[in-house]
Amino acid sequence: QKEVEQNSGPLSVPEGAIASLNCTYSDRGSQSFFWYRQYSGKSPELIMFIYSNGDKEDGRFTAQLNKASQYVSLLIRDSQPSDSATYLCALRGTGRRALTFGSGTRLQVQP
Amino acid sequence: EPEVTQTPSHQVTQMGQEVILRCVPISNHLYFYWYRQILGQKVEFLVSFYNNEISEKSEIFDDQFSVERPDGSNFTLKIRSTKLEDSAMYFCASSDHGNRDYEQYFGPGTRLTVT
What we know:
- In chain A, 0% of the residues lie in helices and 54% in strands.
- The mean pLDDT of chain A is 94.
- By secondary structure, chain A is mainly β.
- Chain A has strands at residues 4-5, 11-14, 19-25, 32-38, 45-50, 54-58, 61-66, 71-76, 85-92, 99-101, 105-110.
- In chain A, a hairpin with a 6-residue loop joins strand 9 and strand 10 (99-101).
- Chain B is mainly β.
- In chain B, the strands form two sheets. In chain B, strands 2, 4, 5, 6, 9, 10 and 11 form a seven-stranded mixed sheet that branches. A four-stranded antiparallel sheet of chain B has the order 1-3-8-7, with no helix packed on it.
- Chain B is globular.
- The termini of chain B are far apart.
- At the A-B interface, strand 4, strand 5, strand 9 and strand 10 of A face strand 4, strand 5 and strand 10 of B.
């Protein structure tokens, strides 16, 4: 089982819609969860982090964490064409500082 | 806004040569990291560095790799004898201390091409 699993996509949504990106993980002891955005040929850019169960909102982004189900998600409201990128789920595993990344979900927002 | 910088942006080297990739972390950050991303693959952790020593490393980070903080601002990754499979984007990251020490901010990367 992969440590961090994401659907590779592409996930295609129309402009203005809500994009829902999902991530599951295998290490039950994982404590910190991150969403990075990566444009083609660029470096990962931190957009959200969540440490506790529940929802965390920041502008158009909402991160959701369910540790019992080992599931993290990212909602992007009012999607814009500029949101088109690969979204990387990452976590800090038990007793570690290193981030473990998923392979990413490619999001396409259609104008 | 402070950011991580990396040089060079692109490095081409021949197999067997040594390369040094350079990074300047965000100035008040205390934790430093190197990651790599082979084209089309996921981002992989190499090493973390704190208080002038390696705090964690992955299986990828073998004896061919070393890291150093030669002065108060630079953080370097050295690959002693490059192989074709070392071709990748190498990202430096840094994080703060205290309550925000798990949020890692990435530099723009160095594309390493080994021929």
